[in-house]
Design brief:
Number of strands: 0
Distance between the termini: 43 Å
GO molecular function: GTP binding; GTPase activity; nickel cation binding
Radius of gyration: 14 Å
Pfam family, one: cobW
Number of helices: 2
Strand content: under 5%
Organism: Rodentibacter pneumotropicus
Helix content: 25-40%
Structural class: mainly alpha
Shape: elongated
InterPro entries: CobW/HypB/UreG_nucleotide-bd, P-loop_NTPase, UreG
Number of domains: 1
Protein name: Urease accessory protein UreG
Length: 49
């Protein structure tokens, strides 16, 4: 079995979650296999943002 790290990122709309994930994956992709799993829903708040 392979070892792994699981990192959870949560926050409100516009908090910078995607930017953080993009920077983090760029930094670690050369050393580790990376996968991103999303659990996103589209809400009225998203439409208005």
């Amino acid at each position: 079995m392979r070892n792994y790290i699981k990192i959870g990122v949560a926050g409100p709309v516009g908090a910078g979650k995607t930017a953080l994930i993009e920077k983090l994956t760029r930094e670690i992709a050369n050393k580790y296999s990376v996968a991103v799993i999303t659990n996103d829903i589209y809400t009225q708040e998203d439409a208005e943002f």
